[in-house]
Known about the structure:
mainly beta; 4-stranded antiparallel β-sheet; binds FE2/S2 (inorganic) cluster; single chain; disordered N terminus; globular; 7% helix; 1 helix
Amino acid sequence: MGPVRSQSCSRRAFLLGTATTFAGAFIAACGKAPSAEVAATQVPVGSAVIVDKIIIAQPTEGQFIAYSTTCPHQGNPITQVDGNTVRCPSHGSVFDIATGQPVSGPATSAMTTVPVSENGGTVTAGEA
Ligand code: FES
């Protein structure tokens, strides 16, 4: 990530974060639930990006859905994107980015969705 390592939640830090073009993403780090912002153009249609602890997917153009990276199997992080699926490397569970459902085990339940919205070309996911 960029050089933004502010310990505060100041407006300035927020603006610096959103202005960074590296990965186009900024992670709020204010002790709240994870949240993430990314330019809509950086979320590939039919696939997803992982920004910190949130998976932001765009199954079809203009349709965004976000999930926690916490794997529903044993809670380890889902870290890999492969086309229209994401994968947890711990035990190999693979999930469909459109539905969140597992397509191969050992996980048997879906990923947890988080709120997501798109405004002016910016996708915001998680609790703000
Ligand atoms: S914790 Fe993700 S597959 Fe086991």
